[in-house]
Write a structure and sequence with these properties.
The complex is a heterodimer of chains A (about 160) and B (about 110).
Chain A: E1 6-14, H1 18-25, H2 27-31, E2 39-46, E3 53-60, H3 63-71, E4 77-88, E5 92-99, E6 108-119, E7 122-130, H4 135-146
Antiparallel strand pairs in A: 1-7, 2-3, 3-4, 4-5, 5-6, 6-7
Chain B: H1 3-8, H2 10-19, H3 26-33, H4 37-49, E1 53-58, E2 61-66, H5 69-109
Antiparallel strand pairs in B: 1-2
The chains are: A alpha+beta (about 160), B mainly alpha (about 110).
Chain lengths: ~160, ~110
Amino acid sequence: MTNKPTIRIERQYAGPVDDLWWLWTTREGFESWWGPEGFRVEVRKLDLRVGGELVYDMIACAPEQIKWLRDNNMPASHGTNGKYVEVVPLKRLGISHMIDFMPGVKPYENRMFVEFVPEGRNVRMVVDIDEHVTPEITRMATEGFASQLLKLPAVLSARRGKS
Amino acid sequence: MDAFQTLADPTRRQIVESLRGGEQQVNDIVAALDIHQSGVSRHLRLLLKAGFVQVRPAGQMRLYSLRPEPFRDLEAWVASYQQLWDARLTRFGAALEKRRTRRKENEGDE
């Protein structure tokens, strides 16, 4: 494979890191925020160890998303299969998602890594995500969700494989 | 075929990379990539069709170069993807606050 561009997103939260780790690695925690906008998540399996499975349903709950999915012949709920590729408690977590639910698109793997870096009383959370390479995800990201997104301060930084 | 499908192929990505330096003939690309000419020509046709590449005649030669438009589209997509994550992490922050508030309340009860 050629070097794949990675998207990097960073946020800083008040410490300690335990609660951040809990939000990423427990059923209740993960369901409380993973989304995306207009979707809720129901975790079916969460086996926190390298090679362990993370299986959940993403269920559209906002009318716009339900309509958009229906208009694009996609179900309002779909199963998502992931597995943990790295587990270093309170420090680093790697999740690989199989993107295998898009009609007509060959399944492919999308990896993300989150790192928790203590900085005094705060914790910097750094998320690196493979860029998706399929048009369907693109459309979901742009048409389906863009209209929903809140206007938030730009605190993101992008890191590309090459400039 | 849209921009992402076009670039999903590693050979086409290599061709795009090799054109970043400027105009090239098919032979130059073939030499740089070590791929058979028929393969390069086929991928160049697809890149032309998808709007990533343009071609102009120069005497006997045909020179290929990149067009900026599809790359701008990709940039726009990356920006929207970041927005998606921005919203997700805003929810993360809210969930974190909620958990901490609840924990404090529970500690207060004890």
